[in-house]
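ok trying this again, last paste got cut off
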Amino acid sequence: MKSEHISWHGGKVEKEDRHRLHQHKSAVIWFTGLSGSGKSTLSVELEKGLFERGIHTYRLDGDNIRHGLNGDLTFTDGDRKENIRRIGEVSKLFVDAGIITLTAFISPFKNDRALVRTLFPEGEFIEVYVQASVEECSRRDPKGLYKKVKNGEIKDFTGIDSPYEAPDSPEIVIDTETQTVEQSVQQILLYLKRRKLIP
């Protein structure tokens, strides 16, 4: 519960000042999709591509965050919501710092993603739906999670016995069953250029 005895302490450096310093704008690129759809792979390659272009960027990955900041959370619906809420707030701070922030989280619920979107001005929340069928994700199974689900070792797994709510109108759709990683990264970079977020 938020204390009533706190207030926001402003500074003398604004987000726009950081944009001028970095010579690019900032935004959060929010990758969402099933486990195994390719979110982490794409975010890693996009981060590398942006960095090589001199863009200030940072990647927040679902598993990595649960090692520290969100290490106290489980996979109940309530904790999943809190996981996304915290990442939304952290992303907001990174974007305010003038950084293009990449997040790779399943973030299965539309309402949670919509709530995060409200934290940002128009154009600073870019939802990327990383699309792949459950069958394809299960075939890839990079972490062996689908096998564990099949063996009864994991319950409430997104896409199997817990719902994944696909975005209705994401800014970008990547179909990793038909697109290569290189094609997907180029699609996102082109979007960022067209929106004048990067030079």
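PB: full thing came through this time. The first helix runs from residue 15 to 22.
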